[in-house]
Specification:
Layout (H helix, E strand, L loop, with lengths): L2 E5 L2 E3 L5 E8 L9 E6 L6 E6 L5 E3 L7 E6 L4 E6 L8 E7 L18 E2 L3 E5 L2
Parallel strand pairs: 2-11
Antiparallel strand pairs: 1-3, 3-8, 4-5, 4-9, 5-6, 7-8, 9-10, 9-11
Amino acid sequence: QLQLVESGGGLVQPGGSLRLSCAAASGFTLDAYAVAWFRQAPGKEREGVSCISSSGYSTYADSVKGRFTISRDNAKSTVFLRMNSLKPEDTANYYCALDRRRAACPDIYSDSQIMPTWGQGTLVTVSS
């Protein structure tokens, strides 16, 4: 069964940077699938952050455009989310997700339940 594993979260000061990673476990590869990042802050609903298609086309939520960059390394079967200029409101659990039926990104910004396969999440805390 395809499993996703996130890493790279932590505590960072406002204005700082982090890079999150999403890797496939158990010998699976990600290159054929669109992969998305979501986040959920305490007391808030889960929201779509960014998505990258199998061909490398990327989309972003308005709240992170210009600050976050999604990328993929198919040789390592890993998708990255580079987060710059972090703000306290970026504090959340970040999850990667995919749908094995999709090579193109769906609308993750209006439907946060659209991907059926999820990782366990990694916590990002932005605080001074």
